Amino acid sequence: MGLHKTVPGHRRWASVLLFGNRQPALSTHPIAESPSSWNRRKGSTRSPQPHGPHLLRRTFSPSHPPHSSLITAKSFSDNRAKTIESGLIMEHKLQSVSLRDQLTAPYPWTATPLIVGAPMRVMSGPELAVAVSCAGGFGFIGPGEKPESTAADLETAKALIASSGIPQHGTTLPAGVGFQIWNGNLDISASTVSQYRPAAVWLFAPRHGQTDVDVWTQRLRGESPETKIWLQIGTLREALDAVRSASPPDVLVVQGAEASGHGRASDGIGFVTLLPEIADATRESGIPLIAAGGVADGRGVVAALGVGAAGVAMGTRFLASQEARIKKGYQDEVVRATDGGANTVRTHLYNHLRGTFGWPEQFSPRTIVNRSWAEKQAGTAFEDIKKRHDDAVSQGDSAWGPDGWTATYAGANVGLISGVASARDIVTGTRREAVNIIQTLSGL
């Protein structure tokens, strides 16, 4: 690869390895400040500094074949080659570049690195999804309270998109939609996809694993062949089942245990460990991977790209967006909460308090802990907690918070979120921060 500069002080190879043949689109999405200022940890008085492993160009030679652990880096000052045998190193293979190009090719409105707005049940409505897509990301609409809700949301999204000027690809709508398989209605969902043709469908939570996924995939592809199928998984076994199936997905969303959404109840791990193992195991499939779980700013994006992701999905960060369909008390608690490891937990308790039963046992949601959880831990009977929960719900926004009783689904990254911003600012600010970190690290 050549060393031609595209921006003063930055190598072309750094840009190509990280963004493929498409350059990061930053100039069209200006923001007033970076996420480092409005997304720093609560209580901090200084902006976090970029940190993380080095991003180094890999040089192959007969003595150091591609799979060697010895990596050669170019010095910015004198082009000397140094052999590095230890340290934290991100390897960006050319195949990763092609997968990023493959991922974004059907979505001409997107910019790289790709930032996806996850389909959170009710909170990801059409306003949020379209705002994310308008900012160069890929916004998904959540499955809603009932199957019929999706059609109404897509109708609203269609009207918003018509006045937005977002470039479209073929006949598909530049937004996606999520479907929860275990209690979803395939007939209604298929009819909705056939009518509105979203650019992608995000499938998750099958009761019977890949068998259920295949049924949905085949039906939806038959209704709208241009619509891509994204499948959320949380283990290596799920990933292998998907890529080996008769109806493999177009994209795998690798959800780490940090995520808010219903993920693996007991066998989940963080995406920094999970994703590279899946990337190695599924490389021959050519299916791009999206990292999900715990990403809230540009630092998380860079980490995801470094372990083999072609893009990232964010859910909890968009709960603190102006366009989220969310109660103020809920949103305030997402902004207030810190120390996600100690103050969030995976449990079915809040599903049951809300009257939702039947979730497959392999899945459970992450939520910010409050009085309901404390009472459960203290041994209080479910019926008593349920009564206090229901009384609290009728009190409005005070139902949330440390002394509240209501479900506050959120990821372990709540401590990285300290303010509400527009979806555009979140997307463009996160992208800008990621690019700045990448460009800084490429000079080390």
TrEMBL record:
Cited SUPFAM superfamilies: Inosine monophosphate dehydrogenase (IMPDH)
Alphabetical UniProt keywords: Flavoprotein, FMN, Oxidoreductase
Presence of keyword Heme: no
Gene3D superfamilies, per the entry: Aldolase class I (3.20.20.70)
Keyword Ribosomal protein appears in the UniProt entry: no
Pfam family, one: NMO
Start and end residues of each stretch annotated as Disordered: 26-71
GO MF annotation, one: nitronate monooxygenase activity
Name under which the protein is recorded: Nitronate monooxygenase domain-containing protein
Source organism of this protein record: Chaetomium fimeti
